[in-house]
Amino acid sequence: MAEEKTYLELSEANEGSHKFYEVIIKDTEVTIRYGRIGDSGQTQKKTYPTPDKAKAEANKKIKEKLAKGYEHAVMGVRQKRSVTRRAVTSTTSTAQQAPILWKFNSNSAAFGIFIDANRCWVGNQAGQVFALNHQGQVINQFKLPDGVKCLVADDVWIYAGCDDGNVYDLTGKLPRVAYNIDENVDIFWLDINNGLLAVSDANAGVTTIDHEDESQWTRLSQGQSGWMVRCDEAGVYHGHSQGVTMYDTQEGRMLWHQQTGGAVLFGWQETSAVYAGASDQKIYCFSKQGKAGPVYKCDASVYSCATAADGKYVFAGDNSSSIYCFDESGTRLWKLSTGCASALSMQFFENRIYIVTTDGSLACIDASEAAIQAAQAGTIPQAAIIKAPKGEGAAPSAVVETTTDTSQGVIVECFKEGSKLRVRVVSLGYNPNWKVQFPKDIRQDGQRYLVEEIRESASGGFYRAFGDIKKLI
Predict the structure, then answer these.
(1) Average pLDDT for residues 118-124, to the nearest whole number?
(2) pLDDT tens digits for 416-451?
(3) Where in the chain is the domain with CATH 2.20.140.10?
(4) Which of 81, 138, 151, 234 is buried most, with the most CB atoms less than 10 Å from its CB?
């Protein structure tokens, strides 16, 4: 039987939606491909009992899209549009330069950063992710399909939120799709806590998605452009153009809202408080119960912020290539130039400040008292300059390495539960009734896999795959 194809597009002006939706009917199979115009998009296939039922379901989906404003179109006429990104400007600071120990050039503006005891991660707008040691040497790299919005850690897992609408797990040799964001969500920022993903978007919406990649709830906050989202066991903290709003994790009920003087451009959290860097040159601190705390005043719009020792010190980066340090009461302790453009994200770790910047640098700055005092007096160390290695690194792939050796690792299997593919552990010593958080794009019904490690989630109730995955044959 010949296939029947319907191709639709929705393209709005002023950085609105720019998406396609394609439906192919072939006998009893319906294939749906969707995504941003100019991209390959994502594909879903489903088989129905009869050709008539397949066609009826396909026509239903087409009518739903037409009702939402999609139109019949010819593929290739409209061109790919750049993904919505924060409009950033960066001017030169007039302050003394900070004591940079080393600077890595990733070659493209970078929003993504994560620092732990072993690695310094940076993700840039070219889709490159680099992992360096604390001496600035590159020890691993990945190439994702589109720009990296942010890097986040959840326990031992490292994730990259990407402009292609996917969130990638970077704990194995290859990036694997951990979460697939709905096509209607234009990702601005994300955070993950115990497998629960929170996504903020261009319309100041916030959505939570569980460990099985299933949407839990979506709420629209009061403003626009949700550049901040942080989450913990109690709630989701959403920063947007009208301030910061907290929702409870389970049901998405609004628990409190606090206005800020400018649009929130970045957010940070500690155990007892959240911090919102804003366009009115201030960082606002709110307790997690919604009480307003100190305000930290900078000299330009705040692009990034971070804290040390549960808020004992507060750091900020502005759009004039300066970084600041405040004490917990809001008193400014120092201001220095980054020496490498404006910091789009930052993190403090073991007496060092790590920043990623508009010029694509990952810089390691000595934040010790002696080094800062010397820098204020005009004395700084000779920074080591590190270039990005040639080659693009490991890219995402649905191809899975095969093995027959089960001497090391944990065996899991994929099975069908209704219309959904789930994964459970079959190795001894695990609860067979618990599901496993496992990449969706490599699941095959009845297939068994060997996973490097299976770990129980912090809250219990499900397992999480960690490390490399191989297909058992």
Answers:
(1) 96
(2) 998 889 999 999 999 999 999 999 889 999 999 999
(3) 4-72
(4) 151
DSSP run (H or E) holding 64: helix 51-67
**Nearest-angstrom CA–CA distance, 240 and 202:** 9
The β-bridge relationship of strands 435-437 and 462-472 is parallel
Contacts 24+ apart (CB under 8 A), 327-333: 328/294, 329/294, 330/294, 330/295, 330/296, 330/297, 332/296, 332/297
Nearest to 266 by CA among 320, 191, 341, 325: 191
Predicted confidence band of residue 45 (pLDDT cuts 50, 70, 90): confident
390 CB-near residues (< 8 Å, 6+ apart): none
Residues of the chain with CATH 2.40.50: 402-472
C-alpha to C-alpha distances, 446 to 260, 417, 421, nearest whole angstrom: 52, 12, 9
Integer Rg of the chain from CA: 23
Q: Where are the CATH 2.130.10.10 domain residues in the chain?
A: 100-387
Distance between start and end Cα atoms, the chain: 34
pLDDT for residue 282:
98
pLDDT at position 81 over 70: no
CATH of domain 100-387: 2.130.10.10
C-alpha distances out from residue 103 to 106, 121, 127, 366, 387, Å: 10, 13, 19, 12, 9
* Measured CA angle at 406 (ends 402, 408), to 5 deg: 110
Which two three-digit tokens encode residue 5? 């194809």
Predicted confidence (pLDDT) per residue in 214-224, tens digit: 889 999 998 88
Distance CA 168, CA 122 (A): 14
Write the DSSP string, 363-380: EEEE-SHHHHHHHHTT--
321, 387, 382: which is closest to 355 by C-alpha?
321
Q: Where are the beta strands (DSSP E) in 309-342?
A: 313-318, 322-327, 332-337
**Torsion-angle region of residue 241: left (phi > 0), alpha (psi -120 to 50) or beta?**
alpha
Q: The whole model's pTM is what?
A: 0.84
Give the CATH number of domain 402-472: 2.40.50
Give residue for tokens 């896999």.
Answer: 449
Instruction: Give dist(CA 363, CA 221) in Å, integer.
Output: 34
Distances (CA, A) of 53 to 26, 58, 59, 163: 12, 9, 10, 35
| Bridge partner list, 198 | 191, 208
Q: List phi, psi (to 5°) of 440.
A: -75, -30
